[in-house]
Amino acid sequence: EQANVTSYAAMAVAIITFEAFLGMWINAFIVSVICMAWVQKKTLNSNEKILLFLGCSRFWYLCIAWVISFLSIIYPSYLLVHHSYQLVQGAVNFFNISNVCVSACLCVFYCIKIANFENSFFIYLKVKIDRIVPWLLLGSVLFSLVVGILVYDIIDKALRNNLNSTCQGIIWKFSIRVDERFFPISFINGFLVATSFAADVFSALLLLFSLWRHKHNMQTNSMKDLRMDGHIKAMKSILSLFVMDSINFISLILTLVYSMENKIIEIFLIHLIQCNFPGVQSIILIFSNPKLEKILLRILVCVKNKFCKK
């Protein structure tokens, strides 16, 4: 039985490590390309600012989540050092909430920037969106910081009440188990994922309606065709985020259900699926951005040629 537990833990660590490092590499690529463009141009447009924040938040989220998973499975007593578990959980929630908020900002930005409506408020947003984006990003960071502090406080109180032992594996069981004191964390995460999901749906519907109107009024000139291409590319990005947020929302609900029933294996499998989201979403964003796609394909061709020569 001990051998089975050891092999299960080793397999879990291997899978989580592969997913986390692949996602970190993808998001590090996005951040690196945008930072190089920033150095060259001395400025960033609104889309690049959002992608930069999104790449950073996802990179650090995956990094800290991997550390938590690795230590909780392999060396759980490390997390029992005073305030260690609270700090890493607060940090991972900070970056996770930042990821969700900035992802919603990206959908709204695409919708406002590309959709065309004659409403005066929408026109005002379209004109001012480049000035609004930095404030949206700042608000997302501050809100995420508040949530991270709340998570730290909730976990700190629960640990003081429930954990008086330093036995191996207790953190793993504790992190899986749902207690009434942890429902505020689940509620906050669920509310934010649902809000991001709603932003995806609302943005997709507005873009779809704008696309339909544009196609209905379209004439045969290149500018109209370019605008239609912009609609379609934005729709692909928003719909991909919509699908991923749908899966994320369902996973969150299933996690709560399985946690109350203490089904650790099912929760772990859902956790493996959720670890793929930051990397998969970032890949979709790369291939919806011509500049990022071109650089990535160039890198892949260079790597392929290098290995083929060997």
Automatic annotation (TrEMBL):
GO terms for molecular function: bitter taste receptor activity; G protein-coupled receptor activity. It is found in: Membrane. Its main location: membrane. Keywords: G-protein coupled receptor, Membrane, Receptor, Sensory transduction, Taste, Transducer, Transmembrane, Transmembrane helix. It comes from the Eukaryota. The chain crosses the membrane at residues 12-39, 59-81, 93-112, 132-155, 187-213, 234-258, 264-288. It is a multi-pass membrane protein. One of its GO terms (cellular component) is membrane. It comes from Scytalopus superciliaris. Belongs to the G-protein coupled receptor T2R family. PANTHER family: TASTE RECEPTOR TYPE 2, TASTE RECEPTOR TYPE 2 MEMBER 40. The keyword Mitochondrion does not apply. This is Taste receptor type 2.
